[in-house]
């Protein structure tokens, strides 16, 4: 088991040895810049909450849920758009997209992604912004993030779904909130991380041990996915969804923490591979859906192994660099 985990570390070494060092040390200037940017984001979020949040999410909702969501999406989508500009323009993180070039229209989609580190979900904003859907993206995420001052309040207004990682609690909340997304006239991007937690070496070893004991594939770069969340989403939204976007995220040269992200230390590059799957091609029974999801994560595992060796995903260059135009595309 440890041999499998160590081979993964060799893959990381292969990637690092192929590329030049980034020279992005944590300098006092980077810390100052990161703290300043975070203060700006907190203050702008607070201003949005005070001047727009209650009116758009509460008052307007008495008259029209549709227009309440539409106006909330506009205002708070504009705030979310600041994060990709922080990552790509201020911190100079290169974001490379590959795979399918998904449409920029008003699709209803479910996004499933690997969970490599605590900030994976933030980089989905970079894709959503380019497609004009940053105000439409919602996450199924751990409830502790919903309790954060200011940021957590924004997540509540944007109707993110909190989970405790205990299905007897989460199942009720998920079905209740998912049912409110049925038949939406507006686009919906709902993001789910089926692994249920971020990847670490120790979690990988436990996942591999479980797989070996139960005759499941041994995965090196992702954890075994959990199926209940995906099945709940497909069950509640089966008549509303157009597609599932299977997203695989890889980092150069080191997986970032939130503080790394804010200060622009890491990552130097984020690679995002997208595979669009029409919802009609996904099985409907729970057993077959679970097998389908496991197959997708086996493919992710292979994609990431190749990424760590080659430094890129196949079919790259599907999206343009971020420009100020996208602020008007919200």
What does this structure look like?
The chain is α/β, with parallel strands linked by helices and 330 residues long. It contains twelve helices and seven strands. It has a seven-stranded mixed beta sheet with strand order 1-7-6-2-5-3-4, with helices on both faces. 36% of the residues are buried. The mean pLDDT is 87. Its EC number is 2.3.1.51. InterPro entries: Acyltransf_C (IPR032098), Plipid/glycerol_acylTrfase (IPR002123). It is an enzyme of class 2 (transferase).
What's a concise summary of this model?
This protein has 330 residues and is an alpha/beta fold.
Strand order of the largest sheet: 1-7-6-2-5-3-4
Structural class: alpha/beta
The best one-word shape is globular
- Main beta sheet strand tally, sense and closure: 7 strands, mixed
Helix content: 40-55%
Strands, total number:
7
User: What integer is the average pLDDT?
Assistant: 87
Low-confidence runs: none
């Amino acid at each position: 088991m440890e041999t499998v985990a160590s081979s993964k570390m060799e893959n990381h070494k292969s990637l690092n040895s192929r590329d030049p060092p980034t020279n992005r040390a944590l300098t006092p200037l980077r810390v100052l810049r990161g703290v300043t940017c975070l203060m700006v984001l907190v203050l702008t979020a607070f201003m949005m909450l005070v001047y727009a949040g209650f009116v758009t999410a509460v008052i307007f909702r008495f008259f029209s849920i549709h227009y309440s969501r539409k106006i909330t999406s506009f205002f708070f989508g504009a705030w979310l758009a600041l994060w990709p500009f922080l990552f790509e323009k201020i911190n100079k993180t290169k974001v490379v997209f590959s795979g399918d070039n998904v449409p920029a229209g008003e699709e209803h989609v479910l996004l499933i992604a690997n969970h490599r580190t605590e900030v994976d979900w933030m980089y989905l904003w970079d894709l959503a912004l380019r497609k004009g859907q940053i105000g439409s993206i919602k996450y199924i995420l751990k409830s502790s993030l919903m309790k954060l001052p200011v940021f957590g309040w924004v997540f509540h207004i944007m109707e993110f779904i909190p989970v405790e990682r205990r299905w007897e609690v989460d199942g009720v909340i998920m079905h209740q909130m998912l049912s409110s997304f049925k038949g939406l006239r507006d686009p919906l991007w709902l993001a789910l991380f089926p692994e249920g937690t971020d990847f670490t070496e120790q979690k990988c070893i436990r996942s591999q041990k479980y797989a070996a004991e139960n005759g499941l594939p041994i995965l090196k770069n992702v954890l075994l996915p959990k199926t209940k969340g995906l099945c709940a989403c497909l069950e509640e939204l089966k008549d509303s969804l157009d597609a599932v976007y299977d997203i695989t995220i890889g980092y150069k040269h080191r997986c970032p923490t939130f503080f790394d992200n804010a200060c622009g230390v890491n990552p130097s590059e984020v690679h995002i591979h997208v595979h669009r799957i029409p919802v009609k091609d996904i099985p409907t029974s729970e057993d077959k859906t679970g097998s389908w999801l496991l197959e997708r994560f086996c493919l992710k595992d292979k994609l990431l192994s190749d990424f760590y060796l080659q430094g890129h995903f196949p079919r790259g260059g599907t999206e343009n660099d971020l420009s100020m135009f996208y602020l008007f595309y919200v």
